Amino acid sequence: TTSAPVLDLGPTAPSFPPGFLWGGALAGNQCEGAWDVGGKGLSVADATTYKPRLDPTDYQGAHTVTTADVQAALAHEGTGMYPKRRGNDFYHRYAEDLDLMQEMGFRSLRVSIQWTRLFPTGEELEPNAEGVAFYHRLFAAMRERDIEPVVTLHHYEQPLTFSIDRKGWHERALVDHFLRFARVCFEEYGQYVTYWLTFNEIDSIFRHSFTTAGIVLDQFAGMDTEEAVYQALHHQFVAAAKTATLMRELVPGAQMGVMLTRTLHYAMTCHPDDALVALRTNRENFLYSDVQVRGEYPTWLHEEWARKGFHVDIADGDLEAMKDGTVDYVSFSYYMSMVSTRDDTGMQKVSGNLTSGAKNPYLDVTEWNWQIDPKGLRYSLTELYDRYQLPLFIVENGVGARDVLEDGTVQDDYRIEYFRQHIEQIGLAIADGAQVLGYTPWGCVDIVSMSTCQMSKRYGFVYVDADDEGNGTFDRFRKKSFDWYRRVIATNGGDL
Ligand code: BGP
C-alpha cells in the first residue's frame, strides 16, 4: 500500500530576488532626540511616559495619559519622559550612523518625518524652515550612500497641542492639517523618496490611543471610548487615502503603503469555537489593511457598529476618497505570534498588551515576554500575499534585549539566531510565491523603546552608549550581529 502523501509545505530552500531592499528601521521620535531643537514643537511622543498596565483588557494600553500629564509635558516637567526625548541623538549623528549602515551594505533605511519639526503646533500655514532643512540633509545623505529611504509620515509624532485644545484625531480638522504636512513632504522630499507610509501601526489606535491618535481619555468622559476611537480611526483612514491620492498627483511613480502591526493569533485548541475566536481576532487585525487595500469598510464592521449602537460621522465624499486612495503595497511589523483566548462570553479582546493572549507552550519568549515565532513570519507573509496579491514589505522585526557592552562590542548571538531564523522563513515564503520588497529590522541602531521608554531594551546591530536616563557618551559600537548582517546582505541572504 502506498503511504499517505506527506503534506508538502513547499520549497525547502530560501531565496531572495535581486535588488531585495535589505536595511533597517528607525522612527524620529525614538532616535532623533533634539526634541526642542530647530524650532520643533512638542509631539505626543514627547509626553509619553510608561505606565505599568493595570488592566490587560484596558483599551488604552501603556500610554494612557491624562490632561494633567499633557499639561506637565507642555510645561517641560514630569519624569520618565527624558529618555524618550533624548533618543540616540540621531539628529546630530545621522551621518555617522549612515556610514555604519553603508558599511553593512544597507540598500534601504526606514525613517519618519516628525510632523512637529515642520509644523510645531500643526496649525501653522507655512512649514518651519529649519525642520524642512533637516530632512533635506538626511535624505540627501542617504541618497549619497545609495540607501533607499522608506518614509513614515506619522510614527506617533503628531503635535501635542492637538491633545489640548482639540480631541486629537477625533477632530475632523486634523485631516486637513495632516494633508498640509503631507503636501510639504511630497513637494520637498519627493525627489529622494519613492516608498511612503502614512500611519505607523494604524491598528494600534486601540492599544495606544494617545501616541497613535492623541486621544486623552478624560476628554471623553461620558462618551463610549471605543466609539470615540472608531471616529478618530475613520479620520485617519480618510487622511491616509487622501494622502495617497495627493502623492500620486505630486510625485509620479512614488509608492504608498499601509503599515500594519501583524498580530498573528493561533487558536487556543482545535475546538471549533476556538477556531472561530482566532478567525475573529485575525480578522480584526486585517481590518486596517483591508480598508486601505480595498478602499472600503467590511460589512462586519458596519454590523458591529450597529450592534453596539455606535455612530461614526462619515462626511460626504469620505467613502469616495477612501475608494480612490488605496495603497500600492502592504508593509507590516512582525515580532511575535499570540494565542487567542476565549472566556465564557466569547473572545477576550486583545487590546493593549500584545502578550495578553494565552502562552504558547511551543515557543520561547524574549525578556519582555514576546513569543519568538520565526515560522509565524512565513505564515504571515503567505497569508498576507494570498489575501492582497500586492507587494509586501517587512518594515519592523527584531528582538529587544539587555545587551551588555564588553571590550567595545556586544556578543549578541541571541540576536543573530533570531534574525537567522526569521530571514530563513522570509526566503521560504518568497520561494513559495510571496512578493516581498524588502526587510528593515527595527532599531538597527539602538533607540528608545516605544512601549517602555527605555534605552535598555536594545534592538540594534549597533550599540549606543546611553542609559535609561539619557546619560552616556552616545558613542556607537558594532555588535557581533553587525558583521553577520553585513555578510547576509553581501550574499543576498545566501550566507545565514
Ligand atoms: C512597534 C513600533 C515601533 C517600535 C517597536 C518595538 O510597535 O512601531 O515604534 O517601538 O514596536 O517595540 P518597543 O519599542 O516597545 O520594544
From TrEMBL:
Protein family per UniProt: Belongs to the glycosyl hydrolase 1 family.
PANTHER family: 6-PHOSPHO-BETA-GLUCOSIDASE ASCB-RELATED, GLYCOSYL HYDROLASE
Annotated protein name in UniProt: Glycoside hydrolase family 1 protein
The entry's keywords: Glycosidase, Hydrolase
Pfam families to which the protein is assigned, alphabetical: Glyco_hydro_1
Gene Ontology process terms (BP): carbohydrate catabolic process
Source organism of this protein record: Cellulomonas triticagri
Annotated active site: E396 (nucleophile)
GO cellular component: cytosol
Keyword set includes Hydrolase: yes
Annotated SUPFAM superfamilies: (Trans)glycosidases
GO molecular function: beta-glucosidase activity
InterPro entries reported for this sequence: GH, GH_1_N_CS, Glyco_hydro_1, Glyco_hydro_1_AS
